Amino acid sequence: VAEEKKAKKAKKEGAAKKNKERTVKGELICAHCALGKGDSCNNAIKVTNKKSGKEMIYFLSGDAASALGKGKGQKVIAKGKVERKGKGKEAKITLVASSLAVDKKAK
Question: Is 44 within 8 Å of 57 (Cβ atoms)?
Fold first, then answer.
């Protein structure tokens, strides 16, 4: 019984973590032009992990996603909820942006 309660609690915490709003900092790019993804232009954020050097692409959606126009390489800060579809290298990570702004501190 105690193990079942722990499992339920862990599941709830995992669900809460999934729905949590996150902040992502990176370079705003056009997913179609720069990456060849999708049928038309769509903004995405390219994030490089400082420790591993690995790049991740967050495709943007939501009203704030088009606030800065087409991605032109500027450094941005985006806030929103992350949705992941698929597994492994084929996974598509979408950030449903609630806000998107130019990172004035970035060089």
Answer: yes
